[in-house]
Design goal:
With 236 residues, the chain is mainly alpha-helical. 58% of the residues lie in helices and 6% in strands. It has twelve helices and three strands. The N and C termini lie far apart (57 Å).
């Protein structure tokens, strides 16, 4: 009975292990419970990548399921985020397969949310590097738009990704020709007033520096002011 239940779980729920040898899949020794779904995993892999999960696995009661494996509930997590994070964890962190690397904004956001909650620093670093590289080569990435970078700014603030936050703010400072300041998406996507203020100050300093170096005629393009920020916040 337990063997049949175990086989059903591995073939049905563990899509993130589909590229692995069956013998390795069979070594799964814990079930992560997310939104009522049981996801097979390996204690050693989880513990090696997360101190939070390592402590939970050490202190958990040995209550076995019908599949013969102990269960570890992950309350508050979404099944989609967990599956994306496990796909990256197994495919890239453990086996370094390019096929299982970060492929989209949805991937990276899910990985950041999951790895921040469970203190998985290696996955956080990889996600941060992915987005920073996307910003630095934004002309080559169709998904690197002002709206996208605005959402990444909010994500960086929420998950304490300092390097990513700096790159996001610099993107807006050095690409003010994108007419993004008439777009309410900046506020709607959750950028904090503190981050907006840093961006505005950077724009003002850049404009002053440029005005000191370049002589030109005509009226310079308007840049945002603190009063504009206040108006945006009051209009939310």
């Amino acid at each position: 009975m337990a063997a049949d239940a175990r086989a059903a779980l591995l073939s049905g729920n563990a899509t993130y292990m589909s590229f692995m040898a069956p013998s390795f899949q069979e070594m799964a020794d814990v079930l992560l419970i997310v939104e009522g779904v049981r996801l097979p995993a390996h204690k050693a892999i989880l513990a090696a990548n997360s101190k939070v999960l390592a402590e939970a696995l050490t202190s958990q009661a040995p209550a076995a399921s019908t599949a013969g494996m102990p269960e570890l509930p992950l309350p508050g997590d979404s099944l989609e985020d967990t599956t994306r994070a496990l796909t990256y964890l197994y495919g890239h962190c453990v086996f370094s397969t390019e096929a299982q690397s970060i492929k989209s904004q949805e991937d990276v956001k899910a990985i950041i949310r999951f790895s921040h909650k469970y203190a998985m620093q290696g996955m956080l670093d990889a996600s941060e590097i992915y987005l920073i590289n996307t910003i630095e080569t934004y002309e080559c990435h169709c998904e690197c738009t002002p709206k996208s970078v605005a959402s990444w700014t909010a994500l960086a603030e929420k998950n304490s990704l300092r390097k990513l936050l700096v790159h996001c703010e610099h993107f807006f400072i050095h690409h003010s020709d994108l007419d993004l300041w008439t777009d309410m998406a900046l506020v709607a996507d959750g950028i904090s007033p503190a981050s907006l203020l840093r961006i505005l100050r950077g724009l003002q300093l850049t404009r002053l520096h440029t005005a000191g170096r370049v002589r030109h005629t005509g009226v310079p393009k308007e840049i945002p002011t603190i009063s504009m920020l206040v108006a945006w916040q009051q209009g939310r």
